[in-house]
Amino acid sequence: MGAEEGNLAAPHTIQAPARDTPTTFRTFFFFPLRVSQRTVEPLEYYRRFLKENCRPDGRELGEFRTTTVNIGSISTADGSALVKLGNTTVICGIKAEFAAPPTDAPDKGYVVPNVDLPPLCSSRFRSGPPGEEAQVASQFIADVIENSQIIQKEDLCISPGKLSWVLYCDIICLDYDGNILDACTFALLAALKNAQLPEVTINEETGLAEVNLKKKSYLNIRTHPVATSFAVFDDTLLIVDPTGEEEHLATGTLTVVMDEEGKLCCLHKPGGSGLTGAKLQDCMSRAVTRHKEVKKLMDEVIKSMKPK
Amino acid sequence: MTMSWARREHVGDGHTCKCKIISTFTSERTQMCALGLRWPERLAFRQAGPVPPSAHPLGQGPPGGPAAAPRLGCCSSGTAGGGAAPAAAIPTALARARGFKRAEAPAPGPRGRAEAARTPGAAMPGDHRRIRGPEESQPPQLYAADEDEAPAARDPTRLRPVYARAGLLSQAKGSAYLEAGGTKVLCAVSGPRQAEGSERGGGPAGAGGEAPAALRGRLLCDFRRAPFAGRRRRAPPGGGEERELALALQEALEPAVRLGRYPRAQLEVSALLLEDGGSALAAALTAAALALADAGVEMYDLVVGCGLSRTPEPAPTWLLDPTRLEEERAAAGLTVALMPVLNQVAGLLGSGEGGPPESWAEAVRLGLEGCQRLYPVLQQCLVRAARRRGAAAPS
């Protein structure tokens, strides 16, 4: 192979990020093709790392990427949060408006989530109405809100049967590198903790609502649901916090949403390879530890904001 | 008694709304002006008072609406902040009309219901791809008693400090984030990829080994506003304004990009406005040009955008780089896009009340000066991004 290198014009080289060991292939064309295994046989490439219980970016199988959160950056929104999980970046903005309560529940308000995956975040999305992935994510967030009772809808009612708050939670993904559900849940939680609603009173004589924009109060957040996502490789191996590439190669995914005191809020397993009961238990215990990590981060961030 | 909307006009960003109400009862025309993006008056004209159960039809619009509506009151008349002033502040004819409607409450059942049924919902009723919320919702600002403070007087040629950063998204080929005062915009570029419906072409080749005109590449621009970007939430399907701005982006960027070097290919530029603090289009233009440069797309020059607005009647002056408050109160607005090194205007978009042509020429000159002042910041940003990229990549 080496002897032919000198005889030909520039050999083809495909650039690959560091940490790769390029391997020369024997092809039936006679010039040497320096190709990275990562591009041609990504699954084999991953298996080599997984055998050693680690991943190409240096993480362990149960290790999360660096999580950063930034709250209150959007001043036009009533509450906002930006969450970065490695490269995956998600921003959530909360807008509160008035609406008439639903007829079947006149003492409740609304919480309306919406996850948007614009073409900006990844080349696989096209502009236009929400695709399948965005709809699934929106529904997942709606389920988390409903099941975990993160906000009691009764708290959002101002005057039963007449006026209530509707919280529009718009989550936009800015950079899609896997594990979107975890990032969205965290962003939603952080934004809700940061959200401030103005004080509303109903004037008895006129029956009009009077809003005092100067006096704002935080929402009453009852629980703190935290999502942990796993990817299943080869029907057996579970890795935490998959990147985009890992999600693509995985044979199944699983998301566990845990509450305080180890209460399970939501389990999302859209098909994929089966899991034994023991594996599921492992996932849940990992989710419990993840909840502690996230709660600590959130408390730090909120503490640094409060004195305002 | 019928109440109907004769005409509703939106000026500019939809912040100003003029309505004519023809009331057969009073037989006079009342003109009201209010700041508010959606005309909450519609609530006031629904049937008042508790609806007797037998009269309540199934499947009527917002269920709790009819009983609730008049209590919420209407929007104000002409106060800048658009608060819900108590009934006394409303022009008398209107108040009389509403009072009449209230007294008549149980009687005009069918008509009242018809009115209510006609009011459109704020959320898209047919959109089953998104989680459904209430049919209509109003922002609390409409019911707030106090007005916004008037914008402080300032030097008309001041530019807000700009923070620009390129190369921050991992999944896009090139990206840029620009923050100027309260305006935050993020832009990403992907491609070049095979253009859909690319035609075969002949024709004379352009200068410098470029493809003939029929084979030139295309630039597809997409402008999106985050729902929480403005004062009032905008439901996701943006509508005409976003398309107009996307077209403005495309028209301004095309002169700068060497599309002849990308035959039969298309470059996708998507801009996302995270927060609107004034001069949003100008910021989007600048961010888009930075993102294209970051993506390594061949360009003749960067494109720098600058926004201007003219203060209303007593002493109209053109202000460079207006804030959101200034834009809302402006009589006219203008956005210029300049290619600084070539010193050529790439795009110009203006709207508003007319004025003497000298005033507009003066505004354009001011805008071009502003663009030139902004250029060194963007140069530095690109140099830093290139250094970061060089340091990160393996040798």
From TrEMBL, chain A:
Its main location: cytoplasm. GO terms for molecular function: identical protein binding; mRNA 3'-UTR AU-rich region binding. The keyword Acetylation applies. GO terms for cellular component: chromosome; cytoplasmic exosome (RNase complex); cytosol; fibrillar center; nuclear exosome (RNase complex); nucleoplasm. It comes from the Eukaryota. Transmembrane segments: none annotated. InterPro entries: ExoRNase_PH_dom1 (IPR001247), ExoRNase_PH_dom2 (IPR015847), ExoRNase_PH_dom2_sf (IPR036345), Exosome_comp_Rrp42_subfam (IPR050590), PNPase/RNase_PH_dom_sf (IPR027408), Ribosomal_Su5_D2-typ_SF (IPR020568), Rrp43 (IPR033196). Residues 63-198, 225-288 form the Exoribonuclease phosphorolytic domain. Pfam families: RNase_PH, RNase_PH_C. One of its GO terms (biological process) is rRNA catabolic process. The keyword Chaperone does not apply. It is found in: Cytoplasm; Nucleus, Nucleolus. Keywords: Acetylation, Cytoplasm, Exosome, Nucleus, RNA-binding, rRNA processing. Belongs to the RNase PH family. This is Exosome complex component RRP43. It comes from Canis lupus familiaris. The gene is EXOSC8.
Automatic annotation (TrEMBL), chain B:
GO terms for cellular component: cytoplasm; exosome (RNase complex); nucleolus. It is found in: Cytoplasm; Nucleus, Nucleolus. The keyword Nucleus applies. Residues 159-298 form the Exoribonuclease phosphorolytic domain. The keyword Nucleus applies. It comes from the Eukaryota. SUPFAM superfamilies: Ribonuclease PH domain 2-like (SSF55666), Ribosomal protein S5 domain 2-like (SSF54211). GO terms for molecular function: RNA binding. Residues 126-135 have a biased composition (Basic and acidic residues). Keywords: Cytoplasm, Exosome, Nucleus, RNA-binding, rRNA processing. Residues 48-68, 101-155 are annotated as: Disordered. InterPro entries: ExoRNase_PH_dom1 (IPR001247), ExoRNase_PH_dom2_sf (IPR036345), PNPase/RNase_PH_dom_sf (IPR027408), Ribosomal_Su5_D2-typ_SF (IPR020568), RNase_PH (IPR050080). Coiled coil: none annotated. One of its GO terms (biological process) is rRNA processing. Belongs to the RNase PH family. This is Exosome complex component MTR3.
